[in-house]
């Protein structure tokens, strides 16, 4: 184990964002419901499907993404207020005068303590932060994209101890309700290569791409009594478990006609697991699971429509019952290559996440400098935002 800067990332991810990790790895995709398997451009293709790099226009010679930034949070409504209410009720229970108790006061304090503790059952928070960079050189021989991406997935879970709830007079010092903060940070550094392969007899091509990459994975956990957990202002220990591994992404795409693309991608083909350091004798196992996805897109120059379907479920934490898996819909209106309006919808295929709606805007004066913004919302407690800058020639 060694020290890293993951503590800062976790504290930003959980406690500084507005209140679902974002669906989609860049702002353009996020505005279109997270679609990208068949609709990403050659600059962001490594995040979704490396084969799409081979489908760039002949006018594209160089691209630079610097950077793409995204963040999202999914949490229990009024979670901080509920934690504060319980901690206040817990202090009142600790200060109860047991030598000469007032029966009415005792009853009121005990009922308030039990009610505030029960209100925290099944409560928690999920947060994600992502930063991506890419340098692309498309060409007809072999398209090349050197990329880097860092993602932080973090969660806060409140594990309620029900033993004291059954006691007529609970002992606050014996309550073992816990607050567990766990986080995984993954940094990918790799190169994507793509090429068009001619299909004999039908005068068409299929695009193939692959991305060998190095992954650095860091895992962290904090396990603390809920009664003393300071969710508004606390210092995280910097001890993490770290490992470095090799991984691989693959992709294929096919255009039966110039306007239509059908695609399939397989990312993180080599599954990874890592156990966090112990905190009060407990650990959390984080994981990277292979992701399979299929998509189709229609693009006539001014209108782009895309559909993606996740074929596998993704879960960063092995202890969590529900992961993320979506069917995604997205659309983009392109005004002469200078401005774009985007919208999308992601339909959750698991019980732990809600459907998401998205909107996005893009500005690309002269078709060279690009600036994109996106926002996603499921309800008032599930929000994501993204922004990116790009330069293409």
Which H/E pattern describes the elements? EHHEHHEEEEEEEEEEEEEEE
Largest sheet: 14 strands, antiparallel, barrel
Number of helices: 4
Specify the oligomeric state: single chain
Query: What is the CATH C-level name?
Result: Mainly Beta
Report the span from N to C terminus.
Answer: 44 Å
Q: What is the gyration radius calculated from CA atoms? A: 24 Å
Helix share, percent = 10-25%
CATH architecture: Beta Barrel
Walk across the major sheet and give the strand order: 2-3-4-5-6-7-8-11-12-13-14-15-16-17
Overall pLDDT confidence:
88
Q: List low-pLDDT spans.
A: 1-21
Give an overview in words.
By secondary structure, the protein is mainly beta. It has one domain (2-76, 122-392): Porin (Beta Barrel). The chain contains 4 helices and 17 strands. The strands form 2 sheets. The protein has a 14-stranded antiparallel β-barrel with strand order 2-3-4-5-6-7-8-11-12-13-14-15-16-17. It has a two-stranded antiparallel ribbon with strand order 9-10. Helix 3 (79-94) runs antiparallel to helix 4 (103-118). Residues 1-21 have low confidence and may be disordered.
